Every structure is written in C-alpha cells, then in structure tokens.
Amino acid sequence: LLTPPEDRHAPDWAAKIHIAAAPVYYHNYLFGEMIASQLSDALGGLVGNPEAGRALATRMFAPGATMRWDHLVEHATGSALDPARFARDLANSSH
Fold first, then answer.
1. What number of other Cβ atoms are within 10 A of residue 34's Cβ?
2. Is 52 within 8 Å of 46 (Cβ atoms)?
3. pLDDT per residue as tens, the chain (95 positions)
C-alpha cells in the first residue's frame, strides 16, 4: 500500500529473487487459496461450521497420502479444482 515515487520506473520486481529463482512457492500459495475457496463453497463455509470440521476430517484429512492431490480435492469437494470459486471470493473480498 505504498505509492512509489513518480519518477521511479525500474524493474523493482526483479529485486525479489524468489520470484525468479523459486516461483513454485507462489504457485503453491495460489493453489492453497483456490482449494480453500472450493472447500468453503462445498462445505457451506469453514468458519463457525462444526459440520465443515467433520467433513474436512473425513473427506480431506483421513485419506492422507492415499490419493494424488487433485483426486483428493475432487473427493473432498465433489468436483475438480476450478478457479471460478476463488475468483468469486477474490472479487467479493474487501482487500
């Protein structure tokens, strides 16, 4: 939330070495946010919802490493990972 100086036109993003050297971290963060949005939608909300906790325990956590991550998401939410729910949450956020 900082305003850069008006005469600044340097590629400052390049100073963040992890963007170029290890971008997978940002991909993982985005996948996590997408999965959280999809889980929240599928379970009728996550916060203050005891049923969501039980569903997470049985549908997401109990299978452990017995499934590939994409199959686990589908098992837990009822559909393949889709960015539409995350985009909707992002559009509705106040940040």
1. 20
2. yes
3. 778 888 888 887 777 777 777 777 788 889 999 999 999 999 999 999 999 999 999 999 999 999 999 999 999 999 999 999 999 999 998 65
DSSP state string for 8-56: --S-GGGG-HHHHH-THHHHHHHHHHHHHHHHHHHHT-STT-HHHHHHI
Tokens standing for 55? 């569903």
**Predicted TM-score (pTM) of this structure:** 0.73
Q: Which of 50, 75, 51, 49 is nearest to 62 (CA)?
A: 75
- Contact at 8 Å (CB) between 91 and 83? no
CA 68 to chain CA mean position, Å: 17
**Could you tell me which of 67, 61, 24 has the C-alpha nearest to residue 39?**
61
Closest CA to 26 of 39, 16, 36: 16
